[in-house]
Amino acid sequence: MFKVLQKTSLNLGQSEKKEKILVQGNKPLKGVIRTSGAKNAVLKQMAACLLIPAKVILKDVPPLQDVFRMIQIVEFLGGKCEFDLEKEVLQIDCSNLNGSYAPFELVSKLRASFVILGPLLTRMKSAKVSLPGGCQIGTRRIDLHEKGLRDLGAKISISHGYVEAECQPNGLTGCEMRLDIPSNGATENLMMAAVLAQGLTIIDNAAKDPEIEDLANFLNSCGAKIKGGGTDRIEIEGVKLDELHGTEYITLPDRIEAGTFLIAALATDGDVLIQNIVPEHLQSLLEKLEEIGGKIDCKENTIHICRAKPLRATEISTVWYPGFPTDLQAQLMALLTKAEGTSIIKENIYEDRFSHVQELVHMGADIQVNHNVAVMKGVEKLTGTQVLGGDLRATAGLVIAGLMAGGKTEVRGLNHLDRGYSHFTDKLIALGAVIERVSDSS
Ligand code: EPU
User: pLDDT tens digit string along 360-406?
Assistant: First the structure.
C-alpha cells in the first residue's frame, strides 16, 4: 500500500462511506479561492511515470479519489508512490516495474487509467490491460487507441474484456497517423507510446487541450522529445529508456474546477476572485458568461467575476477544445435555469450526458430534451429538494442549482464528486455558502 503522509477524509475507500451535501440556497458567493492542480492532467502524468525509470516529483496534486485509484494501479505494476496530502506532493518511482498486466478490478474503477496501455506497451514490449468498462455518460470507445498502436507496429487483440498488446523485441516504430476525431485519451496514449518508439511519430488531428500540452511538457522535462503538444499536430522523436530521467513538475491548474466556481459565482449573484488559473484556457466559457450577464476581469493568473446585468438566455454547443467543454455543460445548465428567455444546449461529445436534467426539473427548471439537445426556458425560482448526481460534473451542477434554490437541497452522488473536486464544500464555505457534508443514513 502506498505511503500517505497525512490522512484526509478522502483516502481511498472512505468516500464509499455514504454522505450527502446539504445546501441552503440564495446566498451570494463572495471571496477568493485558489484552483487545485488539474485532475485530467495529473492522472496522465501519473500514467506517464510508467515510462520513467527514475523518481518523479509531481506538485499541486489534488487528493482526489481518481488520484488514489491511479496510485493503486501504478503500485500494482511495481511503482513506488508516496503522497504528502498536506503539501499535495506525489512522488512516483517506476525504476522497477514488475509486470504489465492491469486487471479489471483496478482499471474499471477509473476510466482514465486506460492511458497506461501506451506507456506500458512501449516500455515492457507487451501489456494486458482490462477494457475500461461502462460509463454513465456514453459508450467511450477505444478504437482510435487501438488503431494508432497498430500503426506503431503493435499486435493487438481484444478478448474476454482485455486488450492484449505486443510489439517486436526492438519496440514500436514511429509513423505518421491521423486521428478520425481529436480524442484526448487516444492522443495521450499514442503520444506516450511514441516516446520510446524508434524514429519520428506524427499525430495529426490531435486533441489540443491544455492537459495534453502539460503532458508533453512533463515528458519533455523527463527527457522526451515532443513538439507541438497543445496543437493539432504533435511530433515525437523516439528516445531510449536510459535517456529518460526524473523531474520535479508542477501540474497545471484545473480549468474545469475554476469554471465550476465561476459559474457558481454568477449563479448566486456573487463576487469571486479565482487564483491560480490560466484565463486563456477558459476563453469559451468566459465569453459565454459575459453574454449571460457576468462582468469578467482577467489578469495573468486570476479571474474576477461578478454580475453586470440580469441573467440572459444563450445557446451553447459542446465541442473539442478550444470550444465549449462538455465538462462544464451541466454546471452551465444549472446557471441557465434562471436566465431570462430560452436557452439551447447541444451536447456533441457524449451521447448520454444529461442525467442532471431530470433532477433540475424536480427543482422547478423548465427543460425539454430531444436526443442531444436541451431546450430550457428560464424560470423565476428553483426550490430545494432531494437530488442525485449521475456523474462527476452533473453532481457539481446540482450543487450549483442548490446554491441558487430557495430552501434546502440535498445532493447525493458524492462518490462521483469526490473523483474530481478536492475540498469542494470547504471551498464553497470559504466563499460564504451555507453548505455541509453529512452522513447519509437514509
Ligand atoms: N472516442 C471514440 N474513439 C476513441 C476514443 C474516444 O469514439 O478511440 C469518443 C468517445 O466515445 C467520446 C469522445 O470521443 O464520446 C471523447 O473521448 P476522449 O477520448 O476525448 O475523452 P477521454 O480522454 O476519455 C477526457 C476527460 C473527460 C472529458 C473528455 C473530453 C480525462 C480523465 N477525462 O476523457 O473528462 O470529458 O476528455 O474533453 O481526461 C470529466 O473530467 O468529467 C471527464 C469526463
Answer: 999 999 999 999 999 999 999 999 999 999 999 999 999 999 999 99
Q: What count of other Cβ atoms lies within 10 Å of the Cβ of residue 335?
A: 28
| Residue reference for cell 485509484 | 69
- Enter the pTM of the model: 0.96
Domain assignments of the chain as residue spans, ordered by start: 3-36+253-439, 39-250
Expressed in angstroms and rounded, the spacing between residue 186 Cα and the centre of ligand 1 is 9
Pick the CATH number of 3-36+253-439 from 3.65.10.10, 3.40.50.2300, 3.40.1110.10, 3.40.50.300: 3.65.10.10
CATH class of 39-250: alpha beta
CA of 294 to the centre of ligand 1 (A): 29
**Which tens digit of pLDDT belongs to each residue from 125-169?**
999 999 886 567 777 789 999 999 999 999 999 999 899 999 999
Residue 291 in grid coordinates: 453574454
Q: Is the CB of 350 inside a 6 Å radius of any atom of ligand 1? A: yes
Pairing of strands 408-412, 19-24: antiparallel
Of the residues 135, 167, 175, 298, which is catalytic?
135
* Residue 135 annotated to the active site: yes
